[in-house]
Every structure is written in structure tokens, then in C-alpha cells.
Fold:
Amino acid sequence: DVKVTQSSRYLVKRTGEKVFLECVQDMDHENMFWYRQDPGLGLRLIYFSYDVKMKEKGDIPEGYSVSREKKERFSLILESASTNQTSMYLCASARATEAFFGQGTRLTVV
Amino acid sequence: GESVGLHLPTLSVQEGDNSIINCAYSNSASDYFIWYKQESGKGPQFIIDIRSNMDKRQGQRVTVLLNKTVKHLSLQIAATQPGDSAVYFCAPRGATNKLIFGTGTLLAVQP
Structure:
């Protein structure tokens, strides 16, 4: 079975902190994604990576950056956390049309 | 930019009835259209996809219809069951395999 693992299920950080969300997949997928999910807004794409060191902005990249140094790992970085970044963050990986999602990280910024 | 919208944010159906979930999209360059199901507390799961050169695809109890003329697709679920209760997303696949999701439709199955 494909496994996408996010490093934390719940996270609480202070405003201004630098936050790292880690995601690892074990199926050698080229494509990896970071989404945030907020009530009534669905899944919004933050960043997308289609290969090692390759990235593409999604719809809401502001305040975020990403790193893909190895194929299996895709990191989301909040450079200076703010309260409006409190959300559920979902990582996914895909080879073709089928994306596999992690369990999500519930981030609260206080 | 790309956008995906749904006509009905909430759909309530009786158990055993057929459900139809609709989705409008704006990106004509999408090569595939994919439906996902998200149950409470879980990440989205792949249900079915349809290639852009097709207008219909059937799976187990589900049928996808694609109308490229009006940029609309639908997911039909036959004999809806309580286990079908979830949020459903359509996701057109764009250039470089990017997946854009809409706001989702909540399907509530009444016993």
C-alpha cells in the first residue's frame, strides 16, 4: 500500500515562528502536493513539486515556501507563522491521476 | 487562473436513491478529470477519473459524465448507501500534472 506520512498530526506554534511541516511518501512518486483545507473553502493548493528540486506555485503560495531535496520528501515551510495560517494541512503524492493523501496536520498558530 | 466550482454545496438524498454531484471547471487544457471522496477525519481518496477525450466512464456504482462544450462534469452514484456520506471533490489535472480541487459537495445520505 502507498503510504504518505506527515510528521505531526497536531502542532501549536507561536506567531512569528518558523514552522516546518514534513511529508514522506514511499512509492517513488514524482508529484507531491501541499494543500490547506479550511471550512467552506475546500482544498487549496499551496505548492506542487513534479520532481526533485522542481516546484510550482499553487493558488495560495504567499507566506509559504517548499523544499524537495529528495524524491520521497516534500517539506512545507512557514517562514513567519501568522494566525491566519491556522489550518489543516494535507500532503499528497501521485504518479498519474491517483493522488494519495497523508492524515493531515492540524496547525494552530497562537 | 484555473478555477473549479460546484453547483450544490450540500446534497441530501434518501438511502437507495441515486445521487448526482455536479462540477464546473474553467481550464480547457485539463487532460484528466478526477473525483475524490473525503470522509470525516480522513484525507481525500481517489474514486474514478475520466480522460478528456471521453464523455462517459463507469465504475462500480459510479458513473462520470463529461461535457466539454459547457465545461461540466458530474458524478452519479447509484443506490446511495450511508457509507457514501462524505465530501466529494472534482479535480481537473492541468499542465505538469497539477491537481486543483474545488470547494467540494457534502453528500448526506438519509436512512
About this structure: Chain A is about 0% helix and 60% strand.
